[in-house]
Amino acid sequence: MARAVTPARKSINTAAAWTVALIIFFPILWTILTSFKPEPVAVASPPVFLNFDWSFENYETVIQQRGYGQFFWNSMVIAFGSTILGMIIAIPSAWAMAFVHGKRTKDLLMWMLSTKMMPAAGVLVPIYLIAVYFKILDTRFLLTIVLMLMNLPIIIWMLYTYFREIPVDILEAARMDGASLTNEILYVLTPMAVPGIASTLLLNVILAWNESFWTLNLTAFNAAPLTKFIAGFSSPQGLFYAKLSAASVMAFLPIMILGWFSQKQLVRGLTFGAVK
Amino acid sequence: MATQASRSAARLMVSPSVILLFIWMAVPLGMVIYYSFRRYRLLNPERAGWNGWSNYSSFVFSPDFGGALVNTLILVLGVLIITVVLGILIALLIDQPIWGQGPVRILVISPFFIMPPVSALVWKNMFFNPSNGLFGELFKYLGMRPFDFLGQAPLGSIVTIVAWEWLPFATLILLTALQSLDSEQLEAAEMDGAPVLKRFWYIILPHMSRSITVVILIQTIFLLGIFGEILVTTAGGPGTASTTLPFLIFKEALLDFDVGTAAAGGVVAVILANIVAIFLMKAIGKNLD
Amino acid sequence: MGRITLDKVSKSFGEVNVIPPLDLTIEDGEFVVFVGPSGCGKSTLLRLIAGLEDITSGQIRIDGNDATHMPPAKRGLAMVFQSYALYPHMSVKKNIAFPMKMAGVDPAEQERRIKSAAEALNLTAYLDRRPGQLSGGQRQRVAIGRAIVREPAAFLFDEPLSNLDAALRVGMRLEISELHNRLETTMIYVTHDQVEAMTMADKIVVLQAGVIEQVGSPMELYHKPRNAFVAGFIGSPKMNLIGGAEAAKHNAATIGVRPEHIAVSATEGTWKGTIGVSEHLGSDTFFHVHGTGLADAMTIRAGGEVDLHHGDTVFLTPDADKIHRFDKEGLRIE
Question: Which of A124, A200, A224, C184 is 20 to 30 A from B259 (CA-CA)?
């Protein structure tokens, strides 16, 4: 139980915490504000904070002239596709390791984790050459597979830690009650694991959405997701602050809001269960 | 503990992941080692052949390699120090009884969800740009000459951007660790007459030490691969002032089309990452039983 | 029917031999309790019978049929777990219906059995609730209901009362005994609590380190413990075990006297000692007597109204007919 503190003390703490939080959040806030400004106001000196003519004009421009829709769709396909594919492969594996805990389960889990340690830059060359060979460079298929494999260890680990929390007794009870393996997974395990499965899905969609090594290096235009779209704004000719901001907001807002709901799972997922 | 039947079912269910991950690891690794000993330039592929260790020597002894190694080290260490120290302080602050702890947490965690190219471009243009970035405005307001962050201090600027991205991660994990501390322990220490600083040093910090280790190791894995931020801000420049190891490999492979040298660089990166990985695996493995 | 025979059944986990080869027959309709200290292998034995673990060697027969390699579902047994193991995402009704759904029982028949089980177990009002909304005792009853509707050849209980508080435990003990009287189905019940074993069992199996120490009715175990371990384990408070010269007087390595078989007097008796802690329960009084030179502390059970207190000197007299004698190996001497 938190101890009672004096209101004065609490006020000071509150002020300090909010100040820090707002400083950290400020770049995001500023981007959101800028996205509603006309271009000249966006670069005005001294900077303008709130008193300008708010408009959605930048959003319209980005969507209509820069082909935002295509990039957004690619991001959706790649992020959800890779995660769902990964879940389909990971759920049986995590089930097996969590409930048929053998001597080698731990080694197997650690080995899976070790594949995650491979630096992407280290294997850029072979992956690139394979993609060229199979003529799948700049396809959503390639990115879906690569991101699925990249996140598969995290997916398995997260599911494993969630499944481990389901009491084995309940699964044994189902076995005693005459459930086959399929029925045990279908009627007992899956419904109980829904919260864990949902948060694993959420976190891995976020990770895949923001992934920006493979998405930048393996795409040109056809399969390019939002990371590539935004990176396209780095060339000086195309630079308009307000439009950059509008494009940015559209790229991060949906995923940031999803992220807010997955704070707790985030800790667990990214520390492989080491911190709960 | 289970029956024979369930064990064979389990083996069957694990195998797809194992096979896929094995291929994902072994094939590229085998290829990168193979190419690291080959002469192979995408622009004149007919001049291919075995090349001995010369890819390694041209990568390792190139003037860029030493700089890239130092830059990588500065980037990783700089971000680690900033995020861990600030993370501890912010976690301690948020853990105090305050009004609106939920919203504060949400604000603090937000940068983590911003995709790297977005954060890099927002910082580059709207903060670091000397003519119309906010920092430039601030300098002008204070009567100083605007400072060209990305031109004059490219690596420091990138460290700032990356630290901003990763500070939420460190804070959130350290806060989680802090909140799992049994308050009776602190009260016992208080009864024993330990003042605030001593309580922090002898109780809170040791309690958080494992989480701090985890934060350091996991961030290191991700920070060693930082790429998007560099590509869209400085593209490794000016010159090679902000070229890191992954970026150098990228340049060899996709800008100079020298597959052999890039592969040798890849092997070097794998070896370096594995040194870190061994420590990380130990820390996580302890927690498995 | 539910006659279960274990024939040279053994279990090892890797190198560790948890249960050396063991024979046991459980007759149809019997209430058998496996009792022993924690880690004695009693739960493992139950799980072997259930089919949740493979046996390493030997044979299990249920009603004469070889069940050694049958999966749990095919054995026709129902189990009540220590944690109740209710399905948290299903209502009470669905929990009870689950085994019938798996077996493909006709829906009308399902309804009928659920109704009768719910009435028998006082669960009718709770059928639509989730397990999370029930008290410990109610959850226990749901677990039992789920077992009953299967109409199994035998019920297996794995320490079913250990998560309940003391008062509820006594109540549930009675309910399970009544259930057995009503259904007359074989029940195998695992517990570490010898009081549960004594009060419920037709037949008690005392286990230690995977070995059966004794099989018998509660009264056989009480009156004729086969060895010092059973003597010490069965009965509450524990039997006083005395070695040395006093035992030699009776031509034994160890003698045992139950607390209720020792008379206490302020004036005269065989052994002299000082009262340490005395526990007044109203109906009985337990004295812990020190300084007798026989054992660290002798436990004596006296009537409720004995006027003796801490520090008093007392004299103890064992009932000569009720002294148990054990040899060097701890085996009973008749």
Answer: A224
